[in-house]
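Reviewer 2 asked us to include a model.

Predict the structure of this chain.
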Amino acid sequence: MLVVEYQKQIACSADTLLNALLDHSNLDRFFNAKFKVLKPADKDEITGGKGCIRQVSILGVRFEEQITQADQAGICYQVLNDFPVRQHSGEIHFRKTGEHTQVSYRIQCQSPWYIPKFVLKAILQKDIQQCLNRLGDMYDPR
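Predicted model (C-alpha cells):
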C-alpha cells in the first residue's frame, strides 16, 4: 500500500476549509483536475458531503469519487473503482491551532503494475502539496 501525507497550517477556520473543499465545481482552484457532481450528498448531510459522488477528470482520465464523511473534523473520500489506481482513499483532517487550522491530507492506494510506485508517489505528493499550498495562499495572501 502506497501512503502519501502532507500537513499545512492555514489561516482560517475548519468550517471555511470544509466549505471550500466541498465546493466540488470549484476544486480546480486547488487541484489540476476538473470535478463534476454526479450525485448530491445524502439526505440530511451538508451540501457536497457524505454520499456525494463526483467525477474527476485529469489528464484525459475520468473516475468517480464518493465522499464517505464530511464534518468540522474533516473529509474522507474513496475512488469507486480500481482505475487509475487501486483501493484509493483520501482523508483530510482539520485541527484548530489558535487562529489557524492544521490540515493533514493523507492518500493511500495501490499502484497498478504499469505505474512504478515511486512515480505514482511523486505525482500524488505533488498534487496534495499543491492543493494545500493553494488553499493556504487563498486565506493567507502575502
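The longest strand covers residues 86-97. The beta strands are 2-10, 34-39, 53-58, 61-71, 74-79, 86-97, 100-110. We have added this to the supplementary material.
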